[in-house]
Amino acid sequence: MDSDRVSSIIGQRVRQYRLNQDLTQEDLATLANVSLNAVKSAEGGKSTLPTYVAILQALGHIDNLLAAFPDEGVSPVQLLKSSTKQKKRASGKTRVKPADNEELDW
Is residue 86 part of a domain? Predict the structure, then answer.
């Protein structure tokens, strides 16, 4: 799935959260302390992370965003390798393949 599609889905969900709470875009802008244009952009899938954070906090859905980034902690393998030190940098030896076009389940 490409980034434009993901952004569009996020915008649709923000809009639905707002409508489910029977809020106008103006009401949400006031609650989130952002501009009306920021709310419109967010619902259109064209916003910044800080704006989405403010809007989702105002809507009571910030946990949905945090769920996308669970805390993995330190891997057991890394703990064995370092024994006492927590990894602070990547070695750059692992090569990343492009992501598959899979549907998001959230």
Answer: no
CATH number at residue 38: 1.10.260.40
Which residues constitute the domain of residue 14?
A: 3-67
Only one residue has tokens 């076009």, namely 101
Whether residue 4 contacts residue 45, with contact meaning beta carbons closer than 8 Å, is answered with yes
Residue 71: count other Cβ atoms within 10 Å of its Cβ.
5
Q: Domain count of the chain?
A: 1
Quick count: other Cβ atoms within 10 Å of Cβ 45? 19
Task: Kindly state whether residue 75 falls inside one of the protein's structural domains.
Answer: no
**Cβ-contact 66, 60 below 8 angstroms:** no
DSSP state of 96: P
CA distance 30 to 28: 5
Give the pLDDT confidence of 59-88 residue by residue, as tens digits.
999 999 999 988 888 777 777 777 655 657
